[in-house]
Write a structure and sequence with these properties.
This protein is α+β, with helices and mostly antiparallel strands. 29% of the residues lie in helices and 29% in strands. It binds pyridoxal-5'-phosphate (PLP).
């Protein structure tokens, strides 16, 4: 089935959708994005993702071209047109077509480019990795210093993922000054003596929408949380480890750089957090 995608207000078959080669997103990675999961036909955490989109646009002084309702409507139309039960809606907003290649931003009034597309992922909530757990390696965090802005500059995370693959692992955790920042496309956590430890919010990490909800739900379940950075050695000595993201929800980590975490199998607290998060998502999806 040919996917229907969204480009600047139009719904088109994917092979008819085009963007200029002068688009700033293509030439300068001058673009931000969001990923909203679809579970059983419902959009998860839509409000959170929309709020972060606006924050990212603001941080880069890109005009927000659509209203909240227009974003929501486009998400719903794409889910319907592409018959998505479980999957994701990807959204990118670029600074638009500058006409010529130039480091200077295009003139005021240049219309940002908006594209959206779906990816089907049947059985999104039943990922096999939830049962087996992830093996991660650690690599130096060589990304730029504004990781709180969700830009499409994903080359370094992509390289880190390829290195993980080459070394027989599922993903990489990024490390700066000896301390874990986050995963290539997820936030990173360890659990020690019943306390959930995850890096505090700053420009060093993406402010995960799933992170915010999981921490809120953990607090409501009387779990203890410490928002601070941790070393790789501390992670390797933890009782449990896990990651969160919009499409992975909560997934356990069972190995870091070849060292088994805890009993070397998915931990109970991570499993419980996944359960609570999915339960809440099914209730609050729109
Ligand atoms: N950190 C990075 C670097 C990411 O790319 C992502 C998601 O893409 C996350 C964290 C998790 O964010 P969210 O929970 O909003 O998906």
């Amino acid at each position: 089935m040919t996917r229907t995608v969204y480009v600047n207000g139009d719904y088109l078959p994917e092979d008819e959708a085009t963007v200029s080669i002068f688009d700033r997103g293509f030439v300068m990675a001058d673009a931000v994005y969001e990923v909203v999961s679809v579970l059983e036909g419902k959009l998860l955490e839509f409000g959170g993702h929309l709020a972060r989109l606006k924050r990212s646009l603001d941080a880069l002084s890109i005009d927000n071209p659509l209203s909240d309702d227009e974003y929501l409507d486009a998400h719903r139309v794409l889910v319907e047109k592409n018959a998505i039960t479980d999957g994701m809606v990807y959204l990118q907003v670029t600074r638009g077509n500058a006409g010529d290649r130039d480091f200077a931003y295009p003139p005021a009034g240049t219309r940002p480019t908006v594209v959206m597309y779906t990816q089907a992922k049947p059985g999104l909530a039943d990922a096999p990795l939830a049962k087996t757990g992830l093996r991660v390696i650690t690599v130096e965090d060589q990304r730029w210093a504004r990781r709180d802005i969700k830009t499409v500059q994903l080359l370094y995370p992509s390289m880190a993922k390829m290195e993980a693959k080459a070394r027989g692992a599922d993903d990489a955790w990024l490390v700066e000054d000896g301390r874990v920042t986050e995963g290539t496309s997820n936030n990173a956590y360890i659990i020690k003596d019943g306390r959930i430890i995850t890096r505090e919010l700053s420009n060093d990490i993406l402010h995960g929408i799933t992170r915010a909800s999981v921490l809120r739900l953990a607090r409501e379940a009387q779990m203890q949380i410490e928002e601070r950075s941790f070393t790789v050695a501390e992670a390797q000595a933890a009782d449990e480890a896990f990651i969160t993201s919009a499409s992975a929800f909560v997934l356990p980590v069972i190995e870091i750089d070849g060292t088994a975490i805890g009993a070397g199998k998915p931990g109970q607290m991570a499993a419980r957090l996944r359960e609570i998060y999915l339960e809440e998502s099914r209730k609050t999806g729109i």
